[in-house]
Amino acid sequence: MKNVKDNIPTGKVERAMKLVGTGARIGTNYLKYYARKAVNGETSKETLHRDNAEDIYESLSELKGSALKLAQMLSMDKNLLPRAYTDKFMLSQYSAPPLSAPLVMKTFKQATGKNPQDVFDAFDLRSVAAASIGQVHRASKDGKDLAVKIQYPGIADSIRSDLRLVKPVALRMFGLSEREMAKYFEEVESKLLEETDYELELRRSTEISERSAHIDGLRFARYYPEYSARRVLTMDWMDGLHLKEFLDTNPSQEVKNRIAQSLWDFYEFQLHTLRAIHADPHPGNFLFTSDGQTGVIDFGCIKEVPEDFYYHYFPLLLDEIHQHPEVTRPILEFVEIVFGNDDDATRRELSQAFLDMTNLLARPFQVERFRFTAEYIDQIYAKGEEIYQLPEVRKPTEPRGNRHALYVNRTYFGLYTMLADLNAEITISRDAAWRDDLLKYWKLR
Fold first, then answer.
1. Contacts of residue 202, Cβ cutoff 8 Å, sequence gap at least 6
2. d(C-alpha 223, C-alpha 57), whole Å
């Protein structure tokens, strides 16, 4: 049984000291590593990484909120951290240590003014899933099985201060000033704050699920505003397994392909029709069944895609666009890959690097059938590492990349990774209306 939490540090000083204490434990781990190395000579760093990952995850689990959300995001990046870290941080997707029963009761009553037993016919004080922003409990009302998501206490109030703690580390990593990185921090902060607003999530969940109901193979919960509040969200209970557990059942490739096709069609519809995407596509936000159905269970992180960004970013998915430099030049300037004051050499190098990467990411869009494999994902991460080594990317004179690309890129990396985990082959619609729309916008059709 997972350790339960009787409290969560909410004060700025308390949370800062927790991170400082974690840093001290990491320093001790390094001392142990070098001591072993002095005695044994060649010593693997695997134990060091495992100990550090354990200590960091334990600390972030106690802090929850944006701190644990960071671990969740890092767990999706197979290239940024050693395997010990990504394996451990993956727990933050749906298996973080839960709140204790007394703290659940207190938190629910503070949010709604009532005890859960007064609202529901039955309410299980033991959580069935606990992640970065909140945890889920099973309940019932009038014969309906329900899932009740309860937000951790103090999380919304701690986001800004948590990001201020993280900011100096990020600035040192990228060699940029606070002013230069401001647009990215504003984007992250706005998304994290939105995730703490369950009333906003309820509205978005209802709208997107209703408009996406026609997509074959998808299941959505009904949401109940009468049993919800700003920090409590109630919906239908959905059966199914998270991706890892689902794959452990050895489903057929036909079933995996069906699931992948539903996910692909879902994201295509959101982006090109709704202009708003479920921007948190990690395995903890989906439930899969043996007959190939996919349940979508979390709409906390939604990225609304501005029209001007849409028409300047997604044309690069089309091979026709790459054949027209007169189009790619203004696109690359708009998405802030190149700037007007760049010298010719810098402009050529960055333009080619970015177009190479988008060509790689666009491979699925250039064929009628595409199989997502681990090898394809490795190629993407290898290309990313190659680009990161460029001087203007590693130590830029100013940040490269439009703020809106942060969550869009995260979305597609997450989606591609899930499809590769399924080793799935899907159908790509080459005659989709959005292709003509983008080409007409740039007067190429």
1. 223, 225, 228, 233
2. 32
416 is written with which tokens?
């591609």
Q: What is the pTM of this model?
A: 0.79
pLDDT tens, the chain, 445 aa long: 456 645 555 555 454 454 444 444 444 444 444 444 444 544 555 665 565 556 555 555 555 545 545 544 444 444 444 444 445 445 444 455 577 888 899 999 999 999 999 999 999 999 888 766 788 999 999 999 999 999 888 777 777 776 676 666 556 545 566 776 778 778 888 888 898 899 999 999 999 999 999 999 999 999 999 999 999 999 999 999 999 999 999 999 999 999 999 999 999 999 999 999 998 887 788 999 999 999 998 898 899 999 999 999 999 999 899 999 999 999 999 999 999 888 899 899 999 999 999 999 999 999 999 999 999 998 998 888 788 778 877 666 677 889 899 889 889 988 999 999 999 999 998 788 999 999 999 999 8
Query: What's the rounded Cα separation, in Å, for the pair 390 and 402?
Result: 18
| Whole-angstrom distance, CA of residue 336 vs CA of residue 257 | 36
Neighbours of 430 (CB within 10 A): 10
Q: Which amino acid is at 74?
A: L
- Looking up tokens 């595409």 gives 370
Q: Does residue 258 sit in helix, strand or coil? A: helix
Cα distance between residue 180 and residue 400, in whole Å: 10
Q: How far apart are CA 104 and CA 101, in angstroms?
A: 5
Gap between the Cα atoms of 172 and 177, Å rounded:
9
- Collect all residues with Cβ–Cβ distance below 8 Å to 348 and sequence separation of at least 6: none
| CA pair distance 94, 136, nearest whole angstrom | 10
Burial 47-66 (b: 16+ CB within 10 A, else e): ebbbbbbebbbebbbbbbbb
Q: Which residues contact 38 (CB under 8 A, 6 or more apart)?
A: none
Give the whole-angstrom CA distance, residue 33 versus residue 405: 39
Token pair for 204? 């978005």
Q: H-helix or E-strand containing 374?
A: helix 374-388
- 293: its two tokens: 């159905």
CA dihedral defined by 235, 249, 260, 91, rounded to 10 degrees?
A: 60
Q: Exposed, middle or buried, 340 (CB in 10 Å: 0-12/13-18/19+)?
A: exposed
